[in-house]
Amino acid sequence: MLSGTFISFEGPDGAGKTSALAAITAKIQPTLGDRLTITREPGGNPISESIRAIILDRANTDMDYRTEALLYAAARRQHIAQTILPALAADQLVLCDRYVDSSVAYQGAGRQIGEDAVAQMNTFATDGLLPDLTVYFDVPAEVGLRRIQAHRQADQVDRLDVEQAAFHNRVRAAYLRLQQAHPERIKLIDATQAPDQVVAEALALIKQTATRYF
Q1: Domains in the chain, number
Q2: What function does the entry list (predicted)?
Q3: Residue 194 marked in a binding site
Q4: For residue 79, what are the CA distances in angstroms to 51, 65, 136?
Q5: Which SS3 state, helix, strand or coil, does residue 163 take?
Q6: Is 204 assigned to a binding site?
Q7: pLDDT tens, 82-130?
Q8: Is 25 annotated as a binding residue?
Q9: 172-207 pLDDT, tens digit each
Q10: Is 12 one of the annotated binding-site residues?
Q11: By residue range, what is the domain housing residue 157?
Q12: Cα separation, 119 vs 92, whole angstroms
């Protein structure tokens, strides 16, 4: 039995979701203690983090797009088996920076290898496990790219960050399609707002979904 609650954070590059997750963690960690698991994709355990390093390495410019999608799915499967499922079985609140919607948006739409094909691949990888809530931080691609250029150090910019604007526009359009197709799970936040407001809205959604932890 999986008694815990699973919440993912999604958004285009530069949306500020990772910063929002850090701020939310600081607010709720004192209350939840070891009932809270914070994790990320790709990553979340040593095997998945090793796959992450390969995927995001800017030296791997020759990586085939389908190889990239398969590596994300492989990292995700290991993440689920080793990190997410044990935490949910232990009745923890799991907050995850990116999950399957990222693959549909980035590889399916951004890389143009097919949103349905990537979704089907990840149905196998996840064995159908979806978050109870996905908080989607929405920004126009040009806003996100300006934020990356202004705030990230050179060694923090990965293979996906350096893609052209058209790639990032396709990613955002796919996210919006996903949100419209699954409005009961995916809740949109306008991430062009002041950071404090974005964090407040995200935290409110989390508390609505995971009421018993608060």
Answers
A1: 1
A2: Phosphorylation of dTMP to form dTDP in both de novo and salvage pathways of dTTP synthesis.
A3: no
A4: 11, 21, 21
A5: coil
A6: no
A7: 999 999 999 999 999 999 999 999 999 999 999 999 999 999 999 999 9
A8: no
A9: 999 999 999 999 999 999 999 999 999 999 999 999
A10: yes
A11: 5-213
A12: 26
